[in-house]
Amino acid sequence: MTATGPAGQHTVRRHNCALVLAAVANEPGVSRAGVATRTGLTKATVSSLVDRLVLASLIREEGRQHRSGPGRRGTSLSLSPDGPHGLGVEIAVDHVTTCLVGLTGGTRHAHVRRADNRDGPARTLERVAGEVADALRRAEHDGIPVGGVGVAVPGLVEASGGRVHRAPNLGWHDVDLAEELACRVPVAPGELVVGNEANLAALAELAALRQAGGEIPESFVHVSGEVGIGAGLVLGGELFDGTRGFGGELGHFPVRPRGPRCSCGSRGCLERLAGQDAILDRAGARDVDALLALLDAADRTATSAVRSAGRLLGTALSSAVNLLDVPTVVLGGTYARLHPWLADPLTDELGTRVLSARWHPVEVRASVLGADAAVRGAATTALRTILTDPESFISPGRPPPHADSRTTSSVGSRIDGGSGVSPAS
């Protein structure tokens, strides 16, 4: 058994700083005294750490608290909207999207570049690198500190290292995205995390639902409907992405065994029959905006195409619901826009196929974030190191204990140049 020595002063401060920031993040408006009570730290220690976090623009003071009764009113503390932002990047089949998301969830500089990203990883990553560089320049021009970069990819991402093993709709096989992007964007600040777009979308949706308040489903399937179809599974308020991070490939559920050949090599996969391209083709629409116009006009062909997709989606999802007893289905991506026409056939199919539906009908709702969920999830995930280890942002030259030059996490990996712990799930 190896003996360990006492924690050094810097290690203790690192730990306490994280405690203080977490207390403020979990209860916006809390006072210094409130933080001391919640963390068990002395008031003097809390005051010193709060001053440090305020100076780093991680939290801000917002005036005196409102309280009834006697006693001195404390100063309200909350996360700073002017602090570090995460840069989110979504690599989809037909676009690259970037945006900046702050600690309080505010979004800035959202940008979409339309492109066919099926022309090979090298060309696509050059495109992505250009978008990242442009976003970093815009952030620097506006004085916005970037604390991390998150990339959402529609494919199998190795949980322990961030390698994209396979992205069928992009035609990618074994692409070390973090390494490749680091070669193209040499100054990538902070952490670079790589994750499956459906999983990151589900995390963003959960955060948005909690922020909005009201009744929040703690367990749901978030379905990202684009050219491909991915699913992020949230169970008990936590993302479940499988033992290796490969879960959620709803688009490759077989719904018609002798159906058309899929990019994955199989036949009759859900996304070949109910994905965005399949719906547009059946509806005779050039894009989603044209499809919505046809649906608004009650065009029979377009309506039939969407209803057929809803039934097929219900067939696939019923298996997941029967297996996992998930009470809610959240439609994201293009499906969120099609919710008014998808919901009824999807609900009917679930009602027929889910054994418990007679007593507990499955709720089908539209995503509150829609097509923005994946890129927002990527951006906020890139900030998790700062939230769990603020010293990594305050003192970037000093690595955390036992850190090596490349730290991996449950959603991806990190480029050299910043320090921190793995993001929380």
UniProtKB/TrEMBL annotation:
One of its GO terms (molecular function) is DNA-binding transcription factor activity. Residues 17-67 form the HTH marR-type domain. Keywords: Kinase, Transferase. It comes from the Bacteria. Coiled coil: none annotated. It holds the Pfam family MarR_2. This is Sugar kinase. It comes from Saccharomonospora piscinae.
